Amino acid sequence: MSPATPAAPRDRLRIAIQKSGRLAEPARALLASCGLSWRESRDRLFCYGESLPIDLLLVRDDDIPGLIADGVCDLGVVGRNVLSEQDLAGQTDSNARFRELRALGFGGCRLDIAVPDSWSWTDASQLAGKRIATSYPQLLSKWLAGQGIDAQVVLLSGSVEIAPRLGQADAICDLVSSGATLTANQLKPVLTLLESEAVLAGPAVDFEGMRAELMELLLRRLDGALRIRRSKLLMFQAPRELLPSLLPLLPDAEEPTVMQIDGEERLALQALCHGALTWQRLEDLKRAGARGLMVLPVEGLLA
Asked: Is 214 within 8 Å of 34 (Cβ atoms)?
């Protein structure tokens, strides 16, 4: 963003998200599921909040932590890897400049150390004296210091995985999702330094006034939206005497609603389940005596 970009207004919230990239669309979809809508500017860099005074700033993901620290935006959706690296890079003392407020459940990946397939790996001590290529020098340096390992950190801005083949490094420290890129470059992951995903980040200090109220509202809606994504409404019927054997099969469910079917010793149950209702779980319920099993989506949920 331009140095002239004004600070976030005190009566609105401004959230920075990726303009493009793998976190961009999931971030907008999640915020929209919280009831937010926007009017986009012609340059497609700013979205003015219409349903609530919550605006979007569309930027590069690497810029988001700095924009939060400078007060240009209030919040940001960014990878934990980016947030943690820049937090370490920007600290001049023990005070954090920003913090993670919520894990958002998408964009999952790992910051791994990977070595050539030819290595016979035993433990981290094998990295002593080696060159490790990475785009995350702060996180890697902190981990090495914590392990008491003296290794050379080789900073690369891209194509980290080919560094060993080019003779630039002996090992790498890079983000891993499926692992296919490592396999294609004859590398294998051996250690995980950080489990990453998209997070909602904010400043280290709390908001006041209107922004504090908007923040509380947004977090409440986010918590509900995230919970909905994992939740389904399960409905079924069962004989009354089988209830004690059926309820233990729903450990992640809220207390079910139980209704007697008129004139029969059968019950109709509905339970809000917050875990995955797999085919295996449904089959287990059926074997235990449940009948007429039905799984329904949940459109809205407030605690």
From this structure: no
Structural domain 109-195, CATH architecture:
3-Layer(aba) Sandwich (3.40)
| CA distance linking residue 174 with residue 133, whole number of Å | 8
The pLDDT tens digits of the residues spanning 162-174 come to 999 999 999 999 9
Assess whether pLDDT exceeds 50 at residue 75.
Answer: yes
The dihedral of CA 18, 23, 29, 34: what is its sign?
negative
pTM for this model (two decimals): 0.77
Query: 136: which DSSP letter?
Result: -
The CB density around residue 181, as the number of other CB atoms within 10 Å, is 16
Structurally, what CATH architecture does the domain formed by 13-107+198-228 represent?
A: 3-Layer(aba) Sandwich (3.40)
* Whole-number average pLDDT of the chain: 89
Residue 231 in tokens: 């939740």
Whether the Cβ atoms of residue 68 and residue 202 lie closer than 8 Å to each other: yes
Instruction: Compute the distance between CA of residue 188 and CA of residue 123 in angstroms, rounded to an integer.
Output: 14
Question: Could you tell me whether strands 291-297 and 109-116 are parallel, antiparallel, or unpaired per DSSP bridges?
Answer: unpaired
Predicted pLDDT at 301 = 62
What confidence score (pLDDT) does residue 3 get? 46
> Other C-beta atoms within 10 Å of 137: how many?
18
| Helix or strand run (H / E) with residue 180 | helix 180-184
Q: Which of 226, 218, 229 is nearest to 103 (CA)?
A: 226
**Is residue 35 within 8 Å of residue 51, measured between CB atoms?**
yes
pLDDT digits (tens, 9 = 90+) for 255-287: 889 888 866 788 999 988 887 788 888 999 999
